Amino acid sequence: MSLLELRDVEVVYQRSDGTPVPAVVGASLDVNRGEIVGLVGETGCGKSSLARAAVGLVSTTRGSVIFEGREVHVLGRRARPASERRLQLVFQNPYESINPRRTVGAQVADAFAISHAQPRSSFRARVEHLLQRVGLPETMARRFPHQLSGGQRQRIAIARALAADPAMIVLDEPLSALDASVQAQVANLLVELARDLHVGMLLISHDLAIVRHVAHRTAVMYLGVIVETAPTDELWKAPKHPYTQALIDSIPHADGAGHLPVALPGEIPDPANPPSGCRFHPRCPRVMEMCRSEVPRLVAKDGGREVACWLHDKPPVFQQSADVPRVSP
Amino acid sequence: MKPLLSVRDLRVWLDTARGPLSIVDGINFDIASGQVFGLAGESGSGKTITALALLGLLPAGARAAGSAMLDGRDLLTMRAAQRRRTRGREIAMVFQDPTSSLHPMLTIERQLTEHLRYQLGMSREEAYERAVHLLTDVRIPNPRAALRGYPHQFSGGMRQRIQIAIGLACEPRLLVADEPTTALDVTVQAGILRLLHRLCEEKDLAVMLITHDLGVLSALADTVTVMYAGRVVESGSTAQVMGGSRHPYTRALIDSLPHPEASDGALVPIAGDPAGPESRPSGCAFHPRCRYMEPSCAAAVPSLVRMDDGREMACPLDPLVVSRVR
């Protein structure tokens, strides 16, 4: 049994005129203890919605979210059940997720107070220990958030999540607001924490390159569906889904060679009105006739890879491939 | 070749109660037509302020000195009226966030043609036809329909294309693009980079590309200048600076990036945080974070020296020693 299991999760929002907007359409994903799973995709692909569903911040219309063997409750007016405090979330912007008017130490202590029934005075040593754990000096506890840099603030946000002694942390774009030189520090911290504290992590990011260094497994999402999942190295070395390939090709390399990255034509379609068949087919460079009408299934391949593409699946009917010329016997 | 824009000893400072606070500390660069000049640096390095100083858009309290010659005229000492004319017609700007630089309640047509009518005195009909042409040029599908639309009806990538079209309306000679793709997805970013590359070649446009993203610079820029804490640390051709950096800061910055080809475990971060204007270390501002630091680094500001291969670098350490230690 995995630590966090997402099964066929569907998240549907409503526009003001009542049109349903399916942001996530049947996504399944597992995260184990000590494992970092990256979830990548373009803006509007539903990765943040899936992350929010994973911690119960939005309600799912179908499917299930199981954490440590129990269904995750959708957050309502009541306090979160104690069983779910070990499931934590870190937001993108450390400038907005931290209270500017209270000291850093007090805010980390809050997180202790919520999860441990002990007098507040006993927290001080633990706060200092936790600050050290995320690579900050213990004197930082007396500072206010505006006295910290972006990287330090993101460390505080991570320390707050760690105060609840979590088994699982969902991180929504934790690195994208940081400077390049600082991004690497925080990325390495995540790897250390997952390894040393045996915490599972679901890392949401649009930056495939950084996910490559951090995540053990990576899932690629497009317009509400997961199109490919594989061990991160495999995914990079041999992407199977044309969308994964397109994402990798569009990353510019800082090597001074002056190669322009390859642009993917078109735009991500409106999720309220998705294309028929494979949702990627209008932008796919290897589109075949059947892609326009038949929805590809996520099929398990060797080496723990799953891919939803007709190029890598036996079609239910006679295959008609546009790009592979058929040689008659 | 004579450069289009020549910036010499540009200094920008803020007058505060405790005296002047230096933000940009004497930088030089040239931008040639048909070329992309890349200005790299982390937050607080002064790269955006440099652009704002050239455009005469510095925030209140900030002042600039030095010279910035565009065709024999100094942008820094120009009268306000002349500067407004230059800014609209010869220099155009594209900012990071197209959502905040486009007016949400005016149609695209209004925002595109206003510029043409005010700066070039075109009639309504002429301006409309030119607007259609401009949108076609930046590859907006169905430009006539797009002109009737409002910004919120377009995606981030399309809004950035529209912003570029507005910038190009008066056929400027210099386009200043400040983090033009930072808010966009990589797939969309690739399209904008290709667009800028094509415009630069077709229209002999000079582009000043300001970004912290070394990948973007590497893809698009012909020459690169790297700033740290208000000073230039290394500058040269893109192949020199990105492909074979010699300054410890540039080197460390490139090493800290996730490498797309090889992933062998942990990234190599630079310790500490980038130095902001109010907390600049003495001497070489990078010395507290530098792994080759020597006592002398804290004492004097290293001067920018031309190296044997033509690049300029501000580090007294023998660059070959640095590369050998690596």
Q: How would you characterize the overall build of this protein?
A:
The complex is a heterodimer of chains A (329) and B (326). An eight-stranded mixed sheet of chain A has the order 6-7-8-3-9-10-12-11, sandwiched between helices. In chain A, strands 2-1-4-5 form a four-stranded antiparallel sheet. Residues 324-329 of chain A have low confidence and may be disordered. Chain A is of the alpha/beta class and 329 residues long. Chain A has eight helices and twelve strands. In chain A, helix 2 (104-115) packs across helix 3 (123-133), helix 2 (104-115) packs parallel to helix 4 and helix 3 (123-133) packs across helix 4 (150-163). Chain B starts with a strand and ends with a helix. The mean pLDDT of chain B is 89. Chain B has twelve helices and twelve strands. Chain B is of the alpha/beta class. In chain B, helix 5 crosses helix 7 (156-168). Chain B has one domain (5-90, 172-325): 3-Layer(aba) Sandwich (Rossmann fold). In chain B, the strands form two sheets. In chain B, strands 6-7-8-3-9-10-12-11 form an eight-stranded mixed sheet, with helices on both faces. Chain B has a four-stranded antiparallel sheet with strand order 2-1-4-5, covered by helices on one side.
